[in-house]
D-cysteine desulfhydrase
Amino acid sequence: MLKYHVDKMLLERPLKNIPIQEIVINKKVRLFMKREDLIHPQISGNKYWKLFHNVNNYLDKNPKRPYIISFGGAFSNHISAVSAIGSIAGIPTLGIIRGEELKDRWRDNPTLLFSRRNGMNLKFVTREEYRHKDKLTEFLQYEFPEALIIPEGGTNKEAVAGIKMMLNNETKDFDYLCTAVGTGGTIAGISMFCEGNQKVIGFKVVDDTSLDNKIFELTSRKNFNLIDSSFGGYGKIKDENVTFINDFKEEFKIPLEPIYTGKMMQKIFELIDANYFPENSKILCFHTGGLQGIEGANLLLEKQNRNLII
Ligand SMILES: Cc1ncc(COP(=O)(O)O)c(C=O)c1O
């Protein structure tokens, strides 16, 4: 019954319907975006695919009292998606949230409010405790032996296997496949399942020097390149990022968010201008969703009296 619920999310939105949209830029290369953000209103983009096998494989084991636990920051797209799965499939969920200070302020945070409204229980831990997620995971697995504990960002082998479904016959036609990189699961799946002649570029929004190795461990393939796209650090939003996102939406009618896809596209535009890609290259970027984060970002921008994301 529960499995039926999770499968149904896929059946309602068949893969074939995910459009690849050309971004007409009048340059010597052609740029496209695969709109994975459209796959589901609440479990959007890569989150959908990273959670798909994780949740279905777990439910296949028929836990008597299913329970899903995961980790994330205050604005986490992953936490938001896990809470939505919980609500859709009728599974209780627990989010371990970085930042004890949010304990009394979570109602002011749209991501946490949404997750809570989906029935997710929230446990706030200090940054120090959060850094030791492995220990917390061990403890939680002991406490809740039947629970599915999904790592931060959803990245694990099942997630990588799920990302395969973002690739199909149409994506084979591109020279470059581009994605934003946080924990590395999405690029790992793209690298693992793309064609041998395709180049994969990861736009790294976090300053994590171990990412190259982490991704390689997940794929055993070294057909990817990481390019720093952090624009001053993870979660930092510069005015130039806001301007880029607003201009992009106005011109191409595609919304981007400021933490992942906005920074990736801004960097890609810079690279195109610097002739990084050979002439006539066909470049495909994956829109990995995360648009739920715009509301929270705008609250912060508003407090700082800055331009908002439209
Ligand atoms: C919108 C969005 N794009 C890209 C990523 C990066 O994915 P990954 O953590 O698999 O590298 C994330 C994080 O999960 C995300 O929320």
In short: The domain at 48-154 is CATH 3.40.50.1100 (Rossmann fold). The beta strands are 20-23, 30-34, 68-72, 93-98, 121-125, 148-150, 176-181, 199-204, 224-228, 282-286. The chain has two domains: 2-39+160-303, 48-154. The longest helix spans residues 46-60.
